[in-house]
UniProtKB/TrEMBL annotation:
Keywords: ATP-binding, Kinase, Nucleotide-binding, Transferase. GO terms for biological process: sulfate assimilation via adenylyl sulfate reduction; sulfate assimilation, phosphoadenylyl sulfate reduction by phosphoadenylyl-sulfate reductase (thioredoxin). It comes from Sphingobacterium yanglingense. Its EC number is 2.7.1.25. Transmembrane segments: none annotated. The keyword Hydrolase does not apply. This is adenylyl-sulfate kinase. The keyword Chloroplast does not apply.
Length: 497
């Protein structure tokens, strides 16, 4: 983990309860799982860092403060540091929790069992009568107090669980905590970048940051319009941004998303030898040559009908009453899109496994995430209401340059050629640089493309999926037919390794 934030975990328990054995056992298992963990055995540090200290209450508290300070230094180079110490006082445990956000594991074992075990004979010496020269004084649990922990995050009873069982259970706890902490730090840094990018008016984004933003919006299901509006109009600071995100989800679900965000962007490895799952050789060749595909039969028609009905309810459109097809002054529609509408039906279509597999085939990798894109509504033109969409265009960020990014839409009803059919210029996905060089600017190049009249309209059936590269000139078209056009926009973003 680069730019580490210290993760310190503390263990407390009576002598002989198994703290050190447990800590080293957990360290070994976590190492096999890819986590670099350091164990601080307090007994060993008594011989070095804390050799000048005795066993008074004040010295014990000083001991734990020194161990914690050293653990903080070590945590800069380890995924986590485990402090295995008796640490008998709540004051000392609380100090680590407050200052270092250090969770506490109570390694519990009944005193009677410890006296019976006593592998080193320490309890036997501690129980000798006063005045006996072999008596061990200031022994926690016998002649010195051990305060029962009231704020432990976890408790393991080694009098009940054998060491192997205890190691297995504690490893699960520690692994989950370490990975959640790492994910939280990674996510916090991303939120800081997102906030600063918006407030500083940063337009040019590197591919790494752009990928993070795409994955973030996909996992947290945040429409781009909602995010941009909040960042530019309402968000005061990073804490405000985090609170806005947390209000959209329960804490458990949010923590799962944060961990998945970290995993997707931090732990993935390149894939090798990808094999197409759904696309035929003919479809793949068409994609390579033309830059688009139109596929049928991937989604049930009833799923399309469901989303279409939800759009009508949202806009208060009655398909039997044409006068309701153009909602007057509605802020729900921007151009021909519904940026704030997400429905259970649209989420189901977005998560359709066949659609995902098509995107995987086109990206030639399985590490992709779905994007949260709007639904589309394009009613027939009237004398007073004209087409609100854009003309033929590219969706290219020319500051960042060309990239292999795939866009898509799903027809939610049959679409005639004149019913607002999607249009594009086949085969022009590889001509962008040539056209820019010839015409001098994206605007002049696109003006020339429009003049050539090369765009074709892709009419289709309910459930047809249309996919195209963002470098392909494309546009929606005016609807001059007899019914509104309903679509769901879809896209997946590949995660760069």
């Amino acid at each position: 983990m680069s730019q580490r934030e210290g993760i310190i975990i503390q263990m407390t328990g009576l002598s002989g309860a198994g703290k050190t054995t447990l800590a080293f056992g957990v360290q070994e298992v976590l190492a096999r799982q890819g986590h670099n963990v350091y164990v601080m055995d307090a007994d060993q540090y008594r011989k070095t860092l804390c050799k000048d200290l005795g066993f008074s209450r004040q010295d014990r508290l000083t001991n734990i403060r020194r161990l914690a300070a050293r653990a903080k230094e070590l945590s800069e180079v380890y995924d986590a540091v485990i402090i295995a110490a008796i640490n008998p006082f709540e004051e000392g445990r609380g100090l680590l929790q407050e200052r270092y956000n250090s969770p506490l594991l109570y390694v519990k074992c009944e005193l009677e069992q410890l006296i019976e075990r006593d592998p080193k004979g320490l309890y036997q010496k501690a129980l000798l009568p006063e005045g006996n020269p072999n008596r061990m004084n200031n022994f926690t649990g016998i002649s010195d107090p051990f305060e029962q922990p009231n704020t432990s995050k976890w408790t393991i009873d080694t009098g009940v669980h054998g060491i192997n069982e205890a190691v297995e259970q504690v490893t699960v706890w520690f692994k989950a905590f370490i990975e959640q902490q790492q994910a939280d730090v990674f996510f916090q840094r991303f939120l800081e970048s997102l906030f600063l990018s918006a407030k500083n008016g940063q337009k040019k984004k590197n591919d790494h940051y752009a990928t993070q933003e795409q994955v973030f919006r996909a996992l947290f299901d945040i429409p781009i319009f909602d995010l941009l509006f909040f960042l530019h109009n309402e968000c005061k600071d990073v804490a405000d941004l985090e609170q806005w995100i947390r209000q959209r989800d329960s804490k458990i679900y949010l923590d799962e998303k944060v961990q998945e965000f970290h995993r997707l962007l931090h732990d993935l490895k390149p894939e090798e030898g990808y094999q197409n799952q759904l696309l035929t050789d003919e479809e793949w060749q068409h994609w390579q040559e033309k830059g688009y595909l139109q596929l049928s039969g991937l989604v049930p028609e009833e799923d399309c009908d469901c989303v279409k009905q939800q759009i009508c309810e949202y806009l208060e459109v009655d398909l039997e009453r044409p006068e309701s097809w153009w909602p007057a002054g509605s802020e729900k529609i921007q151009s021909i899109m519904l940026p704030s509408l997400t429905t259970p039906g649209s989420k189901k279509l977005k998560g359709n496994p066949k659609i995902r597999r098509v995107f995987e085939d086109l990206y030639q990798q399985k590490t992709i995430v779905s994007q949260t894109l709007p639904l589309g509504y394009n009613p027939p033109e009237t004398t007073s209401n004209k087409f609100r969409g854009t003309d033929l265009h590219w969706d290219i960020d020319f500051d960042r340059g060309l990239r292999y990014y795939i866009q898509g839409l799903l027809y939610l009803d049959d679409v005639e050629p004149e019913g607002g059919a999607f249009s594009l210029v086949p085969g022009y996905q590889n001509k962008v640089e040539e056209l820019l060089k010839e015409h001098g600017s994206p605007e002049k190049a696109m003006e020339w493309i429009r003049e050539q009249g090369l765009a074709i309209k892709l009419h289709g059936k309910k459930g047809d999926l249309i996919l195209w590269l963002e470098s392909l000139p494309h546009a929606a078209t005016a609807n001059t037919a007899s019914k509104p056009r309903f679509v769901q926009y879809l896209a997946y973003h590949k995660i760069e390794m």
